[in-house]
Design brief:
The structure holds 2 protein chains of 2 kinds. Chain A is of the alpha+beta class. Chain A contains 5 helices and 4 strands; from the N terminus they run βαβαααβαβ. The radius of gyration of chain A is 25 Å and the shape is elongated. Chain B has a single domain, classed as Up-down Bundle (Formate dehydrogenase/DMSO reductase fold), CATH 1.20.1630.10. In chain B, 68% of the residues lie in helices and 0% in strands. Chain B is an all-alpha fold. The chains are: A alpha+beta, B mainly alpha. The interface between A and B is large, with 69 and 72 residues.
Chain lengths: 177, 454
């Protein structure tokens, strides 16, 4: 388990609830929001639009990475082909030295290459940053299998009402983590 | 191997499964796969061994061993290159294009197709390196100036091809890894021993939090959106290696869509060839149902019809509009020295897919397996005909009908490439989830108590 958290931080005190049902999880998210809780974490073995709607999170900034990567790739593709053509001008097949149509292929490939790599970097960077902001929170291995989970950060003194709220929404199991 | 036909009402999905069943079924594929798996693995390694020995001879004695003779300097190696690139294509079609179309059935089969894609491109990439002659100078392909300051010629389709294949390999690998992360995490949480350590390391800390899914979901969509035009471009670029030249039967504007359809045609057939034994070895009958095979067969049918149309168009234009060399080239394809290759290609690619109009054949696994093998044979032969046969039969050259005979070094290295591909594929599916854990669950109804459906 040590390998799992390369950016090890001290554990965050809070309450971890395990849900067997999607509906109960969605109810619990709504109830937590109503009672003013923020910064809780929802675990899910799969992406479900019900959870996304209930959480109503801001749009991921990953799309900016994709766009910037794509534009950068296209520009680099244009630059290497044109620069390399004019650096040693040589006539090929009676075409202009800097002939755009054949270079579109290279520009396209570089757009896709850079766009994909920056997308991947964007995911890795954003999830690592998110993990660092949240600290080390409790987890249950069933969350990648068939259970949904909610972790609410709370000091020991405040944990009682949270536990009650989560149980009331249909949590199968509630524990302090 | 199950061979039965069922009605539509029985086939489509696996709604009776729970999330836990899915995880357990897929985790089981990483356990003991039985003797059949090891027999196949041993065959693959033996084939690879034969290929390596032939390759070492080729390194030692040079391309003279490859059977090249004027004017046929592109032959079996380039045929294999195009064949393996083609095989790769259906993987991206199933994983990216069908994802954009929201085709639910892809979830159970796309991982196998993606694994196939990555290893097929990896195999394809070896062939230009083998073909260049002085293999130890492979790094000359990298775009840097030579000692006289001359850069590569970016107007050459061969340079485009290098960029296209490099990008395709990188992006399809990214896409595979991206899809694997939540699934490796799911396997990590049920694994024990050294496997737990391996999956803990490779899951990259995935826990399925809302913050992780928030970035993951759109990123997967953007990767799919980038991979979709890429898959169409890569085989178009490969086809321009030929279409940009002046050889009769190569110089056709039809080539790009013709090659892309052919690539998806052969790739879907390879997915079926791989899935049928895999499903039997790993007991995946509950997840990969006849419905999936039928849909794959429909993809083969669709692309097969396009290929058939392209063949007819090629012959028609050679007869109707083409100059004499074009007409003679197509006469040579059908009735020349290599008539057997031309007709194998016609029968396997243009006639055989018509069988798939029958639902009985589409849902019969034995029939599908046999057809998929013949489709692969036909598609290999198509590339051989286009490349080697049309070079050997260039009718306007003075050394016309110079002849060409493939040698043991050609066949040995081709066999080795199949061994190389199957070895990696078999090792991968044994050690990483061959069916997507998280995405198959998306196709199931979420767990709710009765009467609580929202």
């Amino acid at each position: 388990m040590k390998l799992e958290s390369p950016f090890a931080q001290r554990p965050t005190p809070g309450v971890l609830a395990v849900f067997g049902e999607l509906g109960a999880t969605v109810d619990a998210i709504a109830a937590l929001k109503r009672s003013g809780h923020q910064g809780f974490t929802v675990y899910s073995p799969l992406a479900r639009h019900e959870l996304e709607e209930a959480l109503a999170q801001p749009v991921s900034p990953v799309r900016a990475y994709t766009l910037i990567g794509g534009i950068a790739g296209c520009s680099i593709g244009a630059w290497i082909t044109l620069y390399m053509s004019y650096d040693w001008p040589i006539q090929v097949g009676g075409k202009p030295i800097g002939s755009i149509p054949p270079y579109v292929v290279i520009m396209f490939e570089m757009t896709v290459l850079f766009g994909a790599l920056t997308t991947l970097l964007g995911v890795i960077f954003n999830t690592i940053m998110a993990a660092r902001q949240r600290g080390t929170i409790a987890y249950d291995p069933r969350f990648t299998n068939d259970k949904f989970g909610i972790f609410v950060p709370a000091e020991h003194t405040d944990a009682g009402p949270v536990e009650k709220l989560l149980k009331g929404c249909g949590a199968e199991e509630v524990r302090r983590g | 191997m199950t061979t039965h036909t069922t009605t539509r009402a029985q086939t489509p999905t696996h709604h009776t499964l729970s999330y836990d069943d899915v995880t357990r079924t897929i985790a089981r594929t990483l356990g003991s796969p039985g003797r059949g798996y090891y027999v196949l693995l041993a065959c693959a390694v033996t084939m690879l061994g034969i290929g390596v020995i032939c390759l070492l001879y080729l390194f030692r004695y040079g391309l003279g061993l490859a059977g090249y003779s004027m004017p046929t300097y592109w032959a079996v190696y380039i045929t294999c290159f195009v064949f393996w690139v083609g095989i790769a294509h259906s993987g991206t079609l199933i994983s990216a294009i069908l994802f954009l179309f929201r085709s639910g059935w892809r979830t159970a089969v796309y991982r196998v197709a993606e694994i196939m894609t990555v290893f097929a491109v990896m195999t394809a990439g070896l062939f230009p390196l083998i073909h260049i002659g002085r293999q130890w100078f492979f790094y000359w392909l990298v775009p840097y100036p030579n000692e006289r300051g001359l850069w590569p010629n970016f107007k050459s389709p061969l340079v485009w091809d290098e960029f296209a294949i490099g990008t395709y390999f990188t992006v399809s690998t990214c896409f595979l890894i991206m899809g694997l992360i939540p699934d490796i995490a799911a396997i990590r949480d049920v694994a024990t021993g050294w496997r737990k350590k391996l999956y803990t390391l490779t899951a990259l800390g995935w826990r399925g939090t809302n913050e992780q899914w928030r970035h993951y979901r759109p990123a997967y969509l953007y990767l799919a959106a980038l991979a979709t035009p890429l898959v169409l471009s890569v085989h178009s670029v490969v086809s321009w290696d030929f279409a940009m030249s002046q050889v009769p039967a190569w110089h056709e504007t039809l080539f790009a869509p013709y090659f892309v359809a052919g690539a998806i045609y052969s790739g879907c057939a390879m997915v079926i060839t791989l899935l049928i034994p895999l499903r039997a070895f790993f007991q995946l009958e509950e997840l990969v149902t006849l419905h999936h095979f039928e849909n794959l067969a429909k993809l083969i049918l669709l692309t097969g019809m396009i290929v058939c149309y392209a063949y007819v168009t090629e012959y028609f234009f050679a007869w109707y509009g083409g100059p004499t060399p074009e007409r003679e080239a197509f006469w040579y394809r059908a009735f020349g020295r290599f008539w057997w290759a031309g007709w194998t290609m016609n029968v396997c690619n243009a006639f055989l897919p018509w069988l798939l109009w029958s639902k009985r054949i589409r849902t019969n696994l034995v029939a599908l397996f046999v057809i998929s093998i013949f489709v692969n044979l036909g598609m290999w032969m198509e590339r051989f005909v286009i490349i080697a046969v049309h070079l050997a039969g260039e009718p306007f050259e003075s050394y016309v009908r110079a002849g060409y005979n493939a040698t043991w070094a050609d066949w040995g290295i081709m066999l080795g490439s199949f061994g190389w591909f199957f070895m990696w594929f078999l090792l991968f599916v044994k050690n990483f989830p061959a069916v997507s854990v998280a995405e198959v669950k998306e196709e199931l109804p979420p767990p709710e108590h009765a009467g609580r459906h929202r």
